[in-house]
Amino acid sequence: MTRSRLLVIASMVVVVLGALAGLGALWLNPLRAAVGPLPGEALVLPADARWVLGLDVQRFAASPFYARFAAQPGMKPGSLAELEEKTGLNPARDIDRIVIAGSGAGKDSPTLALVTGRFDLYKLGRALETEGKARGRNHEGVTVYAFKEEGPRATAVAFLDAGSLLFGSRDRVEAAVSSRTRGETPLRGNATLLRLIEKVRPGSTFWMVGDQSLLAGLPATVPAPGGGEGAALTLPALRSLTVTGDLDPQLSLAITGEAADDAAARNLADVVRGFVALASLQAQQKPELLQLASAISVATEANRVLVTAQVPYALIDALQAGQAKRAPKPAAVR
Amino acid sequence: MRDTSRPLPFGAAARAVFDLSLEGMLWTRRSLLMGLLIAMPALFALGFRIVLAADPGAVVVTAHDFYAMIVAVYWIRNVLPLAALFYATALVADEIEGRTLTYLVTRPLTRESIFAGKFAAYLATTLSLALPACVLTFFLVLSARGLPAVGPAAGDLFRDLGAISLTLLAYGGLFALLGVALKRPLIPGLVFLFGWELLVYLPGYLPRLTLTAWLRSLVTHRPAQGGLAGLLGEQVLPAAQAVPLLVVLAVAFVWAAARIFSSREYVLEQ
Questions:
Q1: What are the φ and ψ backbone dihedral angles of B164, each rounded to 5 degrees?
Q2: Confidence of residue B214 (pLDDT cuts 50, 70, 90)
């Protein structure tokens, strides 16, 4: 065998071993879930959900974002310590993932959250009952703590097991518990959302998918830059929206919007590019905006608009500092 | 006994030319330079791991984004087309320049089999350099934050290996065609790569006239780009159309190149 053939074979061996290791990693992936990044337990979420949001709490807690903002006074770090003392729950340590499904875009629209992790059910239940905030009762074999507020906004939390709990409007929690008991998976009935969730990159720190009803509340027009009073740009309607992101070591966002057709996607991409270009033009006054514009890229793929952004924390700090500098100073009190 | 008045069968002839060309292609200064250029990301990846281990705060890009930039911008947009240009245009040009073409074409081999053997050697050489580099870079970069991070991205590895192979096949076919059709193919090749291929950033249907738009649509990485590229953005074409189109184009380029090589009279300069 010639040395050339030997080299080619050695290269192919590296590739085959790499492919086998990749297959193994794919197979043993702890994040392998029922659909995309969705854990199997989350399939009890309601079929009429219009949007679903997921957060990988472990990645979030390990990110510089958490380290930067958790210590700020507004975040009340003391209340987390108090929560741990009462319930044994340290969210950053004990919660793995949160998946929230909502059935509308409004503030009062019903939502249901599934939280997975490691919970001390006794301590949690006792904390809820002793404070008199909620009363526990058995619903189809699962303890559901209903908070005392009655009516359509009544909320409840259900302890499915030591690894997962449901929180949301009481009727939604009870319906999800019933579905689980019957072995049903209502969310599988929502083909539109599942199709979107399947495309979410597994391993993202946070993600969100929504269908067109979620986006119905968005403005249909935006003021046209440089146009006279009343001049406006019409935004093409979106059929769906997918957002995925990471927080370590910088803020990385990937937003995919599905428009009605290719032309609408190109129009929307042009509008986004226009805003990015406007930001670049202001670089003279606000240099940080030039960096922000460079961090964003816009592409179209058939009827989809893809926006990606990689924003370093230093740039976020610069933007915040610039904003604080430009904010009007309060008038002196005499 | 073989009938010596007839040329060797296509397969046997192509295999013989493949062996000869592979030996001549792999152990050259060109391969050393191209190997370094192609495998550079594996060194970058090693540097990434060292910096991450020494000072995690100094790394300002996620492992996934770093790998995405290497695949989409470094390999598929720049280095692999360049490698294809230097290797594929030289398939016949090197023989002419070294005045060794006469020895090949006077053997009992069909010209199609000579070209097929040489193109196969080009593919074997470039794939042997690029694919292991991709595998090593993937594992070095993606395992930086622990092995569990490799699993979710493993699908990308297979997609990237396919995209890299198609990049070398499609550009290789085109530049092999330039190599047999033109006397000095390097300049037109460079103009194509760094002139024509910039159409990818224009709106409308123009990006479909480039190879790079179809190739970049095969990978899922969309790293943010600054400057004009970032401002104009890019279109992502349907991957389901991209694969058959690129294969058909590559076959057409190679077929056309083989036809030209078979029918052309080469006059060696004295």
A1: -65, -45
A2: very high
CB neighbours of residue B190 within 10 Å: 13
Using CA atoms of B198, B202, B207, B212 in order, give the dihedral in degrees to the nearest 10: 30
Residue B109, helix vs strand vs coil: coil
Q: What residues have CB less than 8 Å from B164, skipping those under 6 apart?
A: B71, B75, B76, B80, B130, B131, B134
State yes or no: pLDDT of B232 exceeds 90.
no
The tally of CA atoms less than 13 A away on the side-chain side of residue A34 is: 12
Euclidean distance between CA atoms B105 and A167, whole angstroms: 78
A64 contact residues in B (CB cutoff 8 A):
57
Q: Which of B131, B155, B230 sits opposite A26 (nearest CB)?
A: B155
Q: Do B148 and A31 touch (CB under 8 A)?
A: yes
Q: What is the pLDDT along chain A (334 residues), one digit of tens a residue?
A: 688 889 999 999 999 999 999 888 877 765 555 677 888 888 889 998 888 999 998 888 888 888 877 766 666 666 777 777 777 888 888 898 999 998 876 667 788 999 998 888 878 887 887 777 788 887 877 788 888 666 667 889 998 887 889 999 888 998 998 888 777 788 888 888 888 888 887 778 899 998 877 666 666 666 666 656 666 667 777 888 899 988 887 888 888 988 888 888 888 888 888 888 888 787 777 777 777 887 888 888 888 888 888 888 888 888 877 777 766 665 554 4
Q: Looking at the whole model, is its pTM more than 0.90?
A: no
Q: Which of A2, A12, A15, A32 to mutate to test the interface with B (most CBs of B within 10 A)?
A: A15
Q: How many residues does chain A have?
A: 334
ipTM over 0.95: no
The partner residue sitting opposite B26, judged by closest CB among A4, A280, A299, is A4
Q: CA B61 to CA A5: how far, in whole Å?
A: 39
Contact B222 A203 (CB under 8 A): no
How far is Cα A265 from Cα B187, in angstroms, rounded to an integer?
Answer: 37
Distance from CA of A138 to the nearest CA of B (A): 38
A217 to chain B, closest Cα gap in Å: 28
Q: Which secondary-structure segment (H or E) carries B40?
A: helix B29-54
Other CB atoms within 10 Å distance of the CB of residue B103: 10
Do the Cβ atoms of B224 and A8 come within 8 Å? no
CA of B226 vs chain A CAs: smallest distance (Å): 4
Q: How far apart are CA A145 and CA A134, in angstroms?
A: 6
Question: Phi and psi dihedrals of A291, rounded to 5?
Answer: -65, -40
Residue boundaries of the structural domains of chain B: 65-263
The count of C-alpha atoms lying within 13 angstroms of the C-alpha of B198, restricted to the half-sphere facing its C-beta, is: 8
Distance from CA of B270 to the nearest CA of A (A): 32
Considering CB atoms only, which of A201, A299, A314 is closest to B234? A299
